[in-house]
Amino acid sequence: MEASVTIAPGSGHLEVLDEGECYRLLASAPLGRLGVTVGALPAVLPVNFALLGRDVVFRTGRDGPLARAAIGRVVAFEVDQADTVFHEGWSVMVVGWAQQVPESELGEELEQLPLEPWAGGDRPVFVRVVARFVTGRRVTHRPPARSPA
C-alpha cells in the first residue's frame, strides 16, 4: 500500500543560498544545463561538467554547434534537483564568459577532471565558464533557521 503525502499549497520556505552552499550543490550534480543564444533565440543544452576552482568546465566537439554558441560569449549554467512528492528542491546558476581552454594550457589538472563525454564521439575542446556570479535558491518545508537574538 502506497503512503500518501499531503503538502499544503504555498507552504514552502524560499531560501537564498550563499556562495559556499551553491558550490557544494554544484559539485554534487553530474549534469547541468547551458543557456546560450543561437540565432538571437535562447537555447538550453544539457552538458556533463566538472568544477575547476570556481569555474564550470565541459567538453565539446571542435567547431560544433555548442562550441559556436558558447565560446567567447556570456552564458548561464544551471543545475537543480527537485522532489515532486514533497515539493522541495534547489537551483544554482553560474553566469560568466565561456572560453575555450587553449591546448597549450591543457595541464594535468584539467586532463584529470572527470569529464568523459556522455554523448560519445570526439570532444577534444575544453570550455571553461569563468564565473562572474553565482546564485542559488532552495524551497523546503522545514522552517528557516532562526538567528540568535
Strand and helix layout:
Layout: E1 13-16, H1 19-28, E2 31-38, E3 41-48, E4 50-52, E5 55-60, H2 65-70, E6 74-83, E7 88-100, H3 108-111, E8 125-140
Antiparallel strand pairs: 1-8, 2-3, 2-6, 4-5, 5-8, 6-7, 7-8
Question: Number of domains in the coordinates?
Answer: 1
Distance between the termini: 46 Å
* Secondary-structure content class: mainly beta
Sketch the topology as an H/E string, one letter per element. EHEEEEHEEHE
Question: Using only CA atoms, what is the Rg?
Answer: 18 Å
Shape: globular
Using the coordinates above, name the CATH class: Mainly Beta
Average of per-residue pLDDT values: 85
User: How much of the sequence is in beta strands?
Assistant: over 45%
Number of strands: 8
* Helical residues, percent: 10-25%
Would you mind describing this structure in some detail?
With 149 residues, this protein is mainly beta. It has a single domain (13-140), classed as Pnp Oxidase, Chain A, CATH 2.30.110. Helix content is 13%, strand content 46%. The chain is built from 3 helices and 8 strands. It has helices at 19-28, 65-70, 108-111, and strands at 13-16, 31-38, 41-48, 50-52, 55-60, 74-83, 88-100, 125-140. The longest helix has 10 residues, at 19-28. The radius of gyration is 18 Å and the shape is globular. The mean pLDDT is 85.
